[in-house]
């Protein structure tokens, strides 16, 4: 696997292979010295043109657990503020000797442009491009669902028959898009819920069902409820009347939490706006796997970095990664 730009580039076998390899990588964290020598001598550059906490730190941790060197670039305080282009920034970093670029950018398609342009000779991993996709978030969400459902018996399994409801700002969410395509590839059914103004045009052509009534959707007893952040920074118009109105109609509040089935998983990619899209009781409940999503992100990103830098297929295991004990 040369790059990871979109989950739509993965078929079911490849996606399950990445999830299975992440199972191996998760075992590394339990060791006295949680490291593999796999990427020793390799350099990973994190190029983040947008703010990030979870994704950036997760990729840093993943690279370091694989013994890679890490260069982290943030647009704030860099030459980007002086007008430097993505091409020039990438080539400047590449001239320092790098093997992989983890790119987050505000422009949809930026990761594919970088991978296809020939500007640099390095693997490219999409860490979120505009409102397009966030493939490693989709993978870690699928991994979290599978692990929560099946525990130690998760290896090799898909998500056939699972019902997932994704709620909120679908229009601006790259997380929603990656989850829609990956979850349906793995056999799950997806239902989207949000204000009509925050459902994308053309959503009827997606492999999903959609609606605007959250209570009706929850009455169908989904297996997973994934709440999305309201992305105010991407909104240049009034998409709903008021935050209180949004919370009343589309927030996972305490009353809706009480009506969920006991085994319903509650997910959120973070950062959370508590009291808006999700209550503290829901975010901190025993049904919430929000922190599991964060910890599982390191394992998924270890798997992805290993695959793009080793040239191996997703069927590779930890022994081939240099971690057999």
- What's the SSE pattern? HEHEHEHEHEHEEHEHHEHH
Count of structural domains: 2
Shape: globular
**The CATH class of the largest domain:** Alpha Beta
Number of helices: 11
CATH H-level superfamily title of the largest domain: Aspartate/ornithine carbamoyltransferase
User: Compute the gyration radius: what is it?
Assistant: 19 Å
Amount of beta strand: 5-15%
Q: Percent of residues in helical segments?
A: 25-40%
**CATH architecture annotation name of the largest domain:** 3-Layer(aba) Sandwich
Distance between the ends: 25 Å
CATH topology of the largest domain: Rossmann fold
The largest β sheet comes out as: 5 strands, parallel
Number of strands: 9
Broad structural category: alpha/beta
Q: Strand order, biggest sheet?
A: 7-6-5-8-9
| Averaged pLDDT | 92
Pick out the low-confidence regions.
none
Give a short summary of the structure:
With 325 residues, the chain is an alpha/beta fold.
Describe this structure in words.
The chain is an alpha/beta fold and 325 residues long. It has two domains: 7-133 and 297-310, Rossmann fold, CATH 3.40.50.1370; 135-292, Aspartate/ornithine carbamoyltransferase (Rossmann fold). Helix content is 37%, strand content 14%. The protein has eleven helices and nine strands. The strands form two sheets. The protein has a five-stranded parallel beta sheet. Strands 2-1-3-4 form a four-stranded parallel beta sheet, with helices on both faces. Helix 4 links the parallel strand 3 (100-105) and strand 4 (123-129). Helix 1 crosses helix 5. The two termini are 25 Å apart. The model has no long low-confidence stretch (mean pLDDT 92).
